[in-house]
Amino acid sequence: MHDCIRDDSGVHTLRTCRYLDPVAQAGTERIVDYLRLGVNIDHVATVRNARGSAYPDPVRAAKLAEEAGADGVTAHLREDRRHITDGDIERLMAALSVPLNFEMAATDEMQKIALRHRPHAVCIVPEKREERTTEGGLEVAREENRLAHFIAPLAEAGCRVSIFIAADRAQIEAAHRIGAAVVELHTGAYCDLHAEGRLKERDEELARLRDMAAFAHSLGLEVHAGHGLTYETVGPVAAFPEVRELNIGHFLVGEAIFTGLTAAIAGMRQRMDAARAVG
Description:
Its main location: cytoplasm. Catalyzes the complicated ring closure reaction between the two acyclic compounds 1-deoxy-D-xylulose-5-phosphate (DXP) and 3-amino-2-oxopropyl phosphate (1-amino-acetone-3-phosphate or AAP) to form pyridoxine 5'-phosphate (PNP) and inorganic phosphate. Keywords: Cytoplasm, Pyridoxine biosynthesis, Transferase. The structure is a single chain. Helix 4 (108-117) runs parallel beside helix 5 and helix 10 packs across helix 11 (261-278). The chain has one domain (35-278): TIM Barrel (Alpha-Beta Barrel). The chain has helices at residues 42-51, 58-67, 86-95, 108-117, 144-156, 169-177, 188-195, 199-218, 234-238, 250-259, 261-278, and strands at residues 4-6, 12-14, 36-40, 72-76, 100-104, 121-124, 160-165, 182-186, 222-226, 243-248. It has 279 residues and is an alpha/beta fold. The strands form two sheets. The protein has an eight-stranded parallel barrel with strand order 3-4-5-6-7-8-9-10, surrounded by seven helices. Strands 1-2 form a two-stranded antiparallel ribbon.
């Protein structure tokens, strides 16, 4: 149900229901309740780069994820090339049958790379050189004019533009105003509060995520979520009916050390489906 083909220009085109735009493709077949899983392979590259070797190969991991039922693959090409490299993106575009979600900072260099490859989706994320991982959402409201001009060529090239933001009304409204098709809500605070045992605050953050997912959906934005999700924390977020896609990476790569990547993805898919069925 998630077949993906390329036309002569090399652009991914989508021919089945899980990826059809619910607005643009109104009246065509689609699975309304299906929740997509995007597997982030960045930290396979982190392990590879720790030794400066050629393995483990993130492209091989991406193909395994695809075979295990991932609906898409996410890769973040950082300005410092900390994990994923330019060559990885080249090979992913050539190898994948499922869509590539290309995470990138809002810089001229990354825009040029995205326009050259024209992946199915680009997700604009904040980036700091000193951070270990993406620490927060993009401050769209502070840079509306710049970001509106930045994403316009990407959308015109056929890329579905997503903005990675905190679950905040002002940021969601700003993402809508600049013309983003998708918002991805940052679930890191919720996951951290769960890990720290701060359950009352965790539940408050979860309620905020739920309310902001509904608000974003009411504006016509497609809603995704991700960051820090594990087997323990994925269920409540997967149950949000407005959320169409979860992007999960670090936990799956870590779990794969013990169970293998295929089993790790299957375990996440099972939990997502169970939560979705309960609603």
